[in-house]
């Protein structure tokens, strides 16, 4: 078996591991949305292989790993990936920095959807610290984009 057949799957696994790796409380507040970023890249690059269905399954895995109510992260991930998949041709033409702004807006949408769904189910209050990952995700996007593009080209994934 060739590694190129599993590259997308392995990158999603790495993103899930990075998403749940224990960190100090201050660093945990700044943790980028690794899963959203990786799924976002693969949706922009290969929308026929990574789409809302993959986002739903990965979101369910993320719900299980994080211990949240089943469907919260899955729904939020599906909405964000749907927006990317619906506009992938336009977003591909943007520069990496413009894409970072779009990713930041989607990360904000993702966090607000997760907050609203958790607020409906539990009694959580909104804190501005919920939005710190939006900024770190925007900062990480250009480098993650370049890394995953290099991997995609090196393994000739299409």
TrEMBL record:
<keyword id="KW-1003">Cell membrane</keyword>
<feature type="transmembrane region" description="Helical">
    <location>
        <begin position="130"/>
        <end position="148"/>
    </location>
</feature>
<protein>
    <recommendedName>
        <fullName>Rod shape-determining protein MreD</fullName>
    </recommendedName>
</protein>
<comment type="function">
    <text>Involved in formation of the rod shape of the cell. May also contribute to regulation of formation of penicillin-binding proteins.</text>
</comment>
<keyword id="KW-0472">Membrane</keyword>
<feature type="transmembrane region" description="Helical">
    <location>
        <begin position="96"/>
        <end position="118"/>
    </location>
</feature>
<comment type="similarity">
    <text>Belongs to the MreD family.</text>
</comment>
<keyword id="KW-0997">Cell inner membrane</keyword>
<keyword id="KW-0812">Transmembrane</keyword>
<dbReference type="InterPro" id="IPR026034">
    <property type="entry name" value="MreD_proteobac"/>
</dbReference>
<keyword id="KW-1133">Transmembrane helix</keyword>
<dbReference type="Pfam" id="PF04093">
    <property type="entry name" value="MreD"/>
</dbReference>
<dbReference type="InterPro" id="IPR007227">
    <property type="entry name" value="Cell_shape_determining_MreD"/>
</dbReference>
<feature type="transmembrane region" description="Helical">
    <location>
        <begin position="51"/>
        <end position="84"/>
    </location>
</feature>
<keyword id="KW-0133">Cell shape</keyword>
């Amino acid at each position: 078996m060739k590694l190129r057949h599993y590259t997308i799957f392995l990158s999603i696994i790495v993103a899930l591991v990075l998403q749940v790796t224990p960190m100090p409380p201050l660093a945990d507040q700044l943790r980028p949305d690794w899963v959203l970023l990786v799924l976002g890249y693969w949706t922009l690059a290969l929308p026929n292989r990574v789409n809302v269905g993959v986002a739903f399954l990965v979101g369910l895995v993320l719900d299980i790993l994080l211990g949240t109510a089943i469907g919260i992260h899955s729904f939020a991930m599906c909405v964000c990936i749907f927006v990317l998949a619906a506009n992938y041709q336009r977003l591909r033409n943007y520069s990496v920095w413009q894409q970072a702004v779009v990713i930041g807006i989607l990360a904000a949408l993702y966090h607000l959807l997760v907050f609203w769904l958790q607020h409906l189910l539990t009694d959580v209050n909104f804190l501005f610290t919920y939005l710190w990952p939006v900024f770190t995700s925007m900062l990480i996007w250009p480098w993650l984009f370049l890394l995953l593009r290099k991997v995609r080209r090196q393994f000739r994934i299409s």
